[in-house]
Design goal:
- The termini are far apart.
- This protein has about 230 residues and is of the alpha+beta class.
- Helix 1 packs across helix 2.
- The strands form 2 sheets. Strands 3-4-9-6-8-7 form a 6-stranded mixed β-barrel. A 3-stranded antiparallel β-sheet has the order 1-10-2.
- A hairpin with a 5-residue loop joins strand 3 and strand 4.
- The chain contains 4 helices and 10 strands.
Length: about 230
């Protein structure tokens, strides 16, 4: 003899099949959502690790308001546990945007070894007045256009305008935020890569360091390696 509960349940299913199917769909959706969350973390971490490794994101960035020079870069590269050191120049500027509105761009010198840009379209700059524009804000249609600086500081920038020859991503910016600034409204709109001689500054604003380790960036081995280097770097 069938259990009364089973007969009642079967009667309910036959009476309201739509309700039963809706419950099954909700359960299936929940199971699928949980399974996705269970596996997505490893997939996201592995993707990030591959991207950061391919474009050689720095492990340390050393900066000072007094400026840094080639001798400083050489001394930092000699530190035990440091694979590469590279001097960088970065500066923010108010630029003329579309419809004559102002936007704040974060200009960076194009690196050769560390934190390399990912070229999406166009070509790399060859002249000091050419640039790579942020792929999050610019498209291929913007190649050939000029980015015009307003009241550019001649002690920092070699030119008052730069021609967009390529569109790029930066491993330094993994989300849509581009950082804060003391200029304008306090928020950077996008970044822009220019050649080293696109700046008139004779000093570096920072030195990027790459640790001599190929450990998975989310592993204990990587954290231990960075922790042991931090004191000597700072």
């Amino acid at each position: 003899m069938k259990h009364p509960f089973g007969r009642a349940a079967w009667r309910e299913i036959k009476t309201h099949p739509g309700r039963y199917l809706a419950i099954l769909a909700i359960v299936a959706l929940g199971v699928g959502f949980y399974a996705g969350l269970f596996v997505i973390e490893d997939a996201m971490l592995n993707t990030t690790n591959s991207y950061i490794t391919e474009y050689n994101l720095y492990d340390f960035s050393v900066s000072t308001t007094l400026g840094l020079y080639e001798d400083d870069v050489a001394q930092l590269e000699k530190l035990e546990g440091i694979r590469h050191a590279e001097g960088m120049i970065a500066a923010d500027a108010i630029c003329q945007g579309n419809a004559d509105n102002e936007q704040i761009l974060h200009f960076m010198s194009i690196p050769k070894k560390i934190t390399l840009p990912q070229l999406v379209a166009g070509s790399m700059p060859q002249s000091s007045n050419e640039c790579l524009a942020d792929a999050n804000r610019y498209t291929e249609d913007d190649i050939g256009k000029k980015i015009k600086l307003k009241d550019a500081d001649s002690d920092v920038f070699a030119h008052t305008e730069y021609t967009v020859v390529g569109i790029a991503n930066s491993v330094e910016f993994l989300n849509y935020q581009r950082g804060s600034t003391s200029l304008g409204g306090g928020s950077v709109t996008s970044f822009c890569y220019i050649p080293r001689n696109g700046f008139s500054a004779e000093y570096f604003t920072s030195v990027h360091l790459r640790a001599d380790t190929d450990a998975y960036i989310y592993s204990d081995d990587y954290r231990d390696a960075i922790r042991s280097l931090k004191q000597s770097v700072t």
